């Protein structure tokens, strides 16, 4: 039920001992959720194109950046971040024909540049430099997919941090773009078959391309040299408009596979179909969508290696025979292990498989029948990824990283089973100067939670150290050990970085994920709170020196914990967060998150969501932490309205009682993640400056 609108002045001034905020207009609007009436006075902020919304953003940014500009060492922090980040960064190379392709960033380039070279010793040549595509360096190369012969490539571009992409085709002989242009691509890759490729898109949105609900995901086939208007519609399902659809092709181009998921209806799994080249109809590998997940590792002749969590919470690999498709005929190739399967792929006629053991990677090589051939020794406890390649490859590449081990690229010779360093990083960093440890602490219900803690050796654990506690806890995503150069100045200034492996992630398999989703979501918040309490109890820090940080689902985490335990930390950074848990599914692809969160359309889910939604649980009379909310004007994944409404409510209810600033930083021409290097470093500098200033600390 909607009450009549009541318009107040757009801006008034709220005075506070420390801060002056622009007070946000309230409009009387009430919704009825299963008999519970919920006010939504800031609904008007959901319209990102409205002049009032843009004016509100301008006023909020004026206050925020005015505050940040007064921090004397803010510029120094940015200089230090630029200095430590300014070193060459490479991706692992990937072979296609006679060329090896790789990305390189010279140091502070806004976007990494795509190169290729003939053989491993050839002279590199620039294939595509995204830095030349926009004046501010915010146009990104999101997709680069080479045809089987390597004569053409699909290049996907995103502008200003948007999830929307435009595809073009490059002639790899001339390195020039063809006239082909494909628009409104989203949640897609590009998979070649013959003289064209499959891709997925939505119809052109009506109204705001930022916030419009994305429905009717379609798969098309585009032939090189033709207009998008004549692309073949391969698959759509108008009866189920919130399903994702994607088609991808086997390396030998013999088979194409159709993947269908229905997360908007709360299903965490997918259906999987196939067809042989030349056939029109797809046949089922798995016809029904449940909570079980299935993906193709590779085809072995006319059979498929299939990765699945069906009857295996930590996942397994089976062999599917189209001639005997019944599940009872699936042959188990890699049985489930006590550790969760992290990755599985093939190259050089072998299967490369990684597992997570206590959130660190273990890598193995198997033959295609599932016989273990050897483990790939890694330099230590950390994260390894890569190992991809084609059937004829003799060498694969992988990258290893940890908190105190900068990303190092290794080449692995398949025949000799030996790894050698292919490229060492050139970062000015001495690993021996820093301490990394993994601890296990009890959550509220006694569950043991892993946490990585990083700090400079010799640091006195006296409870006085500025500490960032980072978490995510959702969507089956693992927070593994990885190197970040922007942590170095923070650690050198006496900082402690803690990364907690909360339930809801994939660190310990599907059971770990399920223990932190939907009606079990409170476990995630309890895990994060317990992490903060552990750090305080062990004298790493104190309430007055602790900062909470998380982005997206992690922004939801921080916002919720601020409400449930406002005394836990001095500073909080809810970044690009899902803050309105009653309406998240109304925008872009937010309905995709119903599988993890549930939906307010369901009475049981509503009660749960309403009980912790950051926006709806802000209370008056509470001394909230110093808060810097961050979002961006081109975030079309978690629309900025979440953060707009949240900070408006926080300022309205807490401005008179909190002793800390409550601010929002809205980046421009950026998205769910920073759209270029400069914006990323600027935001990090502001986060460090805000944190230290509000803890009463200096920066050297």
From TrEMBL:
Residues 22-423 form the Peptidase S9A N-terminal domain. GO terms for biological process: proteolysis. It catalyses: Hydrolysis of Pro-|-Xaa >> Ala-|-Xaa in oligopeptides. Keywords: Hydrolase, Protease, Serine protease, Signal. Residues 1-17 form the signal peptide. One of its GO terms (molecular function) is oligopeptidase activity. The keyword Membrane does not apply. Belongs to the peptidase S9A family. It comes from Runella aurantiaca. SUPFAM superfamilies: alpha/beta-Hydrolases (SSF53474), Peptidase/esterase 'gauge' domain (SSF50993). Residues 483-696 form the Peptidase S9 prolyl oligopeptidase catalytic domain. Cleaves peptide bonds on the C-terminal side of prolyl residues within peptides that are up to approximately 30 amino acids long. Has an absolute requirement for an X-Pro bond in the trans configuration immediately preceding the Pro-Y scissible bond. Its EC number is 3.4.21.26. This is prolyl oligopeptidase. GO terms for cellular component: cytosol. The keyword Metal-binding does not apply. InterPro entries: AB_hydrolase_fold (IPR029058), Pept_S9_AS (IPR002471), Pept_S9A_N (IPR023302), Peptidase_S9_cat (IPR001375), Peptidase_S9A (IPR002470), Prolyl_oligopep/macrocyclase (IPR051167).
């Amino acid at each position: 039920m909607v009450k009549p609108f009541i318009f107040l002045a757009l801006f008034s001034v709220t005075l506070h001992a420390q801060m002056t905020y622009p007070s946000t207009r309230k409009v009387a609007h009430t919704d009825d959720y299963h008999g519970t009436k919920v006010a939504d006075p800031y609904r008007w902020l959901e319209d990102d194109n409205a002049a009032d919304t843009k004016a509100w953003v301008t006023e909020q940014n004026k206050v925020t950046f005015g505050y940040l500009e007064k921090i004397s060492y803010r510029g120094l922090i940015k200089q230090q971040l630029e200095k430590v980040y300014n070193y060459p960064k490479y991706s692992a190379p990937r072979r296609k024909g006679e060329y090896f392709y790789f990305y390189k960033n010279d140091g502070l380039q806004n976007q990494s540049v795509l190169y290729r070279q003939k053989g491993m010793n050839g002279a590199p040549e620039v294939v595509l430099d995204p830095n030349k595509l926009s004046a501010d360096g915010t146009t990104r190369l999101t997709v680069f997919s080479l045809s089987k012969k390597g004569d053409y490539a699909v290049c996907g571009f995103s502008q200003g941090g948007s999830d929307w992409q435009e595809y073009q085709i490059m002639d790899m002989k001339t390195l020039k773009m063809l006239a082909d242009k494909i628009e409104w691509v989203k949640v897609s890759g590009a998979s070649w078959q013959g003289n064209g490729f499959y891709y997925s898109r939505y119809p052109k949105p009506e109204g705001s391309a930022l916030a419009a609900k994305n429905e009717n995901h379609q798969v098309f086939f585009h032939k090189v040299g033709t207009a998008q208007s004549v692309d073949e519609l391969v698959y759509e399902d108008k009866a189920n408009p919130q399903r994702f659809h994607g088609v991808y092709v086997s390396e030998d181009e013999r088979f194409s596979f159709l993947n269908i998921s229905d997360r908007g209806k709360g299903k965490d799994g997918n259906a999987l179909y196939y067809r042989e080249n030349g056939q029109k109809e797809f046949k089922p590998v798995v016809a029904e969508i449940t909570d079980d997940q299935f993906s193709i590792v590779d085809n072995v002749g006319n059979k498929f290696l299939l990765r699945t969590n069906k009857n295996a919470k930590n996942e397994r690999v089976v062999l599917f025979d189209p001639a005997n498709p019944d599940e009872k005929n699936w042959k188990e190739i890699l049985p489930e292990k006590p550790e969760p399967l992290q990755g599985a792929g093939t190259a050089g006629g072998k299967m490369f498989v990684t597992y997570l053991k206590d959130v660190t990677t273990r890598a193995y090589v198997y033959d295609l029948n599932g016989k273990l051939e050897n483990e790939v020794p890694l330099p230590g406890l950390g994260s390894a990824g890569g190992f991809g390649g084609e059937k004829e490859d003799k060498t694969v590449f992988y990258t290893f990283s940890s908190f105190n081990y900068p990303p190092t690229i290794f080449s692995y010779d398949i025949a000799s089973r030996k790894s050698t360093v292919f490229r060492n990083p050139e970062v000015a960093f001495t690993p021996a100067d820093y301490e990394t440890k993994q601890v296990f602490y009890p959550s509220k219900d006694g569950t043991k939670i892993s946490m990585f803690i990083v700090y400079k050796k010799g640091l006195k654990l006296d409870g006085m150290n500025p500490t960032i506690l980072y978490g995510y806890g959702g969507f089956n995503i693992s927070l593994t050990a990885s190197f970040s150069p922007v942590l170095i100045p923070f650690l050198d200034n006496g900082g402690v970085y803690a990364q907690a492996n909360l339930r809801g992630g994939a660190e310990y398999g599907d059971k770990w994920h399920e223990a932190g989703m939907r009606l079990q979501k409170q476990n995630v918040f309890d895990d994060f709170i317990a992490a903060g309490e552990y750090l305080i109890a062990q004298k790493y820090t104190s309430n007055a020196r602790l900062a909470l940080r998380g982005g997206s689902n992690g922004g939801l985490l921080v916002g919720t914990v601020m409400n449930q335990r406002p005394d836990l930390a001095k500073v909080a950074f809810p970044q690009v967060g899902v803050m309105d848990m009653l309406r998240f599914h109304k925008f872009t692809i937010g309905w995709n998150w119903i599988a993890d969160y549930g939906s307010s359309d369901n009475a049981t889910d509503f009660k749960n969501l309403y009980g912790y939604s950051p926006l709806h649980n802000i209370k008056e009379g509470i001394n909230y932490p110093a808060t810097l909310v961050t979002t961006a004007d081109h975030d079309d994944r978690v629309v900025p309205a979440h953060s707009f409404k949240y900070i408006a409510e926080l300022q309205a209810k807490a401005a008179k009682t909190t002793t800390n600033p409550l601010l929002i930083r809205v980046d421009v021409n950026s998205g769910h993640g920073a759209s270029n290097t400069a914006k990323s470093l600027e935001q990090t500098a502001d986060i460090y400056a805000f944190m230290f200033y509000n803890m009463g600390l200096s920066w050297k």
